[in-house]
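FYI - complex with F0G, inputs then prediction.
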Amino acid sequence: MNLPWAEPYRIKTIEPIRRSTRAERESWIGSAKYNLFNLRSEQVYVDLITDSGTGAMSSAQWAEMMLGDESYAGATSYYKLKETIETVFGFPYFLPTHQGRAAENVLFSAMIGSGPESGKGLIIPGNSHFDTTKGHIEFRGAHAVDCTIDEAFDTQVEHPFKGNVDLKKLDAALSRKDVKAPLCLVTITCNSSGGQPVSMANLREVSALCRQYKVPVFFDSARFAENAYFIKTRESGYADKSIPAIVKEMFSYADGCTMSSKKDGIVNIGGFIGFRSQEAWRKASTFNIMFEGFNTYGGMAGRDMGALSVGLREACELDYLESRVGQVAYLGQRLTDYGIAVQRPYGGHAIFVDAKKFLPKVPKEEFQAQTLGVELYLEAGVRGVEIGALLADRDPDTHENRYPALELLRLAIPRRVYTNAHMDYVAAALANVKERADGIRRGYRVAWEAPIMRHFTVELTPAK
Ligand code: F0G
C-alpha cells in the first residue's frame, strides 16, 4: 500500500487556544460590527482569516534569529538573504521591504509614479491582482486589467491551472493605443482566483508576448513554492524535476518580482523586490530608502532577514509542500464530502467556499460571502475571510459597488500550525451551517466604509 503523507516535523512548542460559547460569540461579533477583522484573536478558536505571517517557524529559523546582525549597513543577515534570493530565484539584485504591499509601493513608485495622478493613462495587466496590489494601482490613477482565464470564474470547472493568464485578453490589453502598460504582473499562485496556480507553459508564453511589446514582467510571488508544487504534480514534463529547479525556471521568465515573505517565506513579517536589471534596482532603491529603509535592511530587522533566508529554502522542500498542499486538499475533501461547493481543484493555501451556492437566498447586495463568514464564526468560532463584493470595493470612476463573478468565503490555512483534527472541526462546523442555510435569507448592509480597501475596516449592520 502507498503510505500517506505526514508532516515532516514534530511539534516542540504549543500555543493554547480556547473555545467559546455561542452567546459570547454573538456579543463579540456585534461589537465587531459584523466585521471579522475587528475580532480579538482570543475570541477565535480556529483562525483561518489568512495564511499571511501566521506560519510556525522551524527550529533552524529560530536559531537564525539569534544570529541576526542588526548593523544598519552591510549586515551579515542581509548577505545571507541576498545569497538565498540569488540561489532560489536567480535574481542578482533585491531590495528588502517590510511586507508585500511595501514592495508594491516601492516598485510602482518607480514604474508608475508616486502621486495620485501619476498613473493616468496607464494599465497594469495581470491575473486577478491581489487587493493591495489593485489598491496601489488605483491609488495612482492607473487601472488593473484582469486577464485571468474564464475557467477561473466557475468554481465547478476542473482546470489544473485556473490562475493562468488568457493570452488573447493580455494581447488585447497590450495592443491598446489609448493606454500604456509599464509592466505586467502575474500572481503565483493567484490568490483571488482561489489559490490557483499558473502553469510553466503560461508563464513562458506571457513572458514571450510581453517581450514583443517590450513590457517587463513581474511576478507577485507570495506563494511561489506552492505554485511550483502544482507544476510538478499537474504539468506534463515536470514530475521528475526538483522543486528548486522548477522555481528557477519559473523565475527565468520574469524581469523581477514582488514578494510577501509572510507566505512562502514562512516568516511573520517581511517582503522584498527582486530584479534582474541593475538599472531597475537603482531606480527603485531611491524609493526604498525613502519609504522603507537603507538598501541592506529596508524595513526588516537583521534577525528577520536571517529567518527568511532559511524559510525560503524550507518552503521548497518537497515533503513540506506535500503536507502543506495535502492539508489544504484534506479540508477541501471533507467539505466536498458534506456536499459543500468549493473552488475546484483545491488551491495551494486555502479552500474557497462558493457562497452564492451556499446561501442562494441572500441577495448579492447584502454580501453573501460575508454573511456566510459571520454564520461560520457564530457556529464554531472559526474565522474565514470574505472574497466577494466587499473586497471588490467600488469602481474608482463610477463609485458603484462592484459585484464580482464569484462570492467566496476563503478558509486560509496557516503553515505548519493546525492539525487535521482542526480541519475536521472546521468542516463539521460548516456542515452545521449548511443544515440551516435555507433559513438564512438576509445579510448585511454597510453602515460605514473607507474610501479604498473598505473590507478591512467596514462596519456592517444586519439587513432587515
Ligand atoms: N500579493 C498577494 C498575492 C497576497 O496574497 C498578498 C497578501 C500581498 C500581495 C500583500 O502582501 O500582506 O505582505 O503586504 N495577502 C494576505 C492574504 C494579506 O490574506 O491573502 P502583504
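The mean pLDDT is 96. Residues 50, 52, 99-101, 130, 132-133, 187, 191, 220, 222, 260, 262, 271 surround F0G (CB under 6 Å).
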